[in-house]
Amino acid sequence: MFWHMSKPRRSSSPKPTEAELELLQILWERGPSTVREMYEALSGDKGTGYTTTLKILQKMAEKGHVIRDESERSHVYRAAMKAEQTQRQLVQDLLQRAFRGSSASLVVAALNEKRASATELAEIRELLDEMERESKT
Amino acid sequence: MFWHMSKPRRSSSPKPTEAELELLQILWERGPSTVREMYEALSGDKGTGYTTTLKILQKMAEKGHVIRDESERSHVYRAAMKAEQTQRQLVQDLLQRAFRGSSASLVVAALNEKRASATELAEIRELLDEMERESKT
DNA sequence: GATGGTCTACGACAAGTGTCGTTGACATAT
DNA sequence: ATATGTCAACGACACTTGTCGTAGACCATC
């Protein structure tokens, strides 16, 4: 019989891995791109080969993290989700896994980690005001 | 020769994995604990076996994420770092990998993700004031 | 139409992770 | 003192991830 299958095989969107996230960031910045374009976009940072980038993108297409347009010889990839959606998902995950769901702790950690600019601080203040206004209803 | 070693083998603290973080959270809540205690603390949530928990803790001891007291027959484990330190490290990592270093974006995502309580919002406001005061120096 | 470049696809591989079974040491109760 | 239970250690295993090499399709240009 077949218990020890343990992992229920998560079908939908199982959180992008490290390398996948790196490629997603490039797609979010550049918009739809070919493998070569992405490869060159990161070849400064990493010493990794062309086929590596290709393979990861193929995996991502299977998983549904990116969408592939095969109409041209050089396939064009685009991110399946907007940056904000994926970021939300990642924050949600970290919140659960490391902060027991306390978003305030996470915010404090983030602000302590890297000092935000004055405009950014103002933006956050704005958001706080808005939230308090809403909660008063 | 030895390039293609790629990963520079991070010796100190290579970011706790999923299962490791789960155990760390238990240690942070309960304080120093035995394997059995931790196993029972999560056996509600997961269907995972005792030896699994043991093995992961042994790996964590090797990596230095936990410190093991072997003076009793049932070894007692305690977290090597405070929750805040590890959380900071994780936030730093996510910041780089998914938010291009913009802590403001992360804060916005966190607050949108899960509405914080009024007291928590006040706490954040406090922190903002403090940061602005400092930056005026 | 042969040559060289560019692309996708496929397979291999090492390392890491999570999972468990088994074993041998030790303790406890009968 | 024998049987029962608990514990740490070790090895095995499947699966994922990141990495690459090679092969086969396609397209130039000579």
List keywords for this structure.
homodimer; 137 residues; mainly alpha; Arc Repressor Mutant, subunit A; 2 domains; 3-stranded antiparallel β-sheet; 6 helices; 3 strands; 7% strand; elongated; disordered N terminus; DNA-binding
Considering residues with a beta carbon less than 8 A from a beta carbon on another chain, report the largest interface and each chain's count. A-B, 48 and 48 residues
Oligomer: homodimer
Identify the CATH class of the largest domain in chain A: Mainly Alpha
Examine the coordinates and then state which fold CATH places here, giving the name of the CATH topology of the largest domain in chain A: Arc Repressor Mutant, subunit A
The strand line-up of the biggest sheet of chain A is 1-3-2
Task: Indicate the low-confidence ranges of chain A by residue numbers.
Answer: 1-11
User: What integer is the average pLDDT of chain A?
Assistant: 89
Shape of chain A: elongated
Number of helices of chain A: 6
How is this structure best described in words?
2 copies of one chain form a homodimer. Chain A is mainly alpha-helical and 137 residues long. The first copy, chain A, has 2 domains: 18-79, Arc Repressor Mutant, subunit A; 83-135. Chain A has 6 helices and 3 strands; from the N terminus they run αβααββααα. Chain A has a 3-stranded antiparallel β-sheet. The first copy, chain A, is elongated and about 55 Å long. Chains A and B meet through helix 1, helix 4, helix 5 and helix 6 of A and helix 1, helix 4, helix 5 and helix 6 of B.
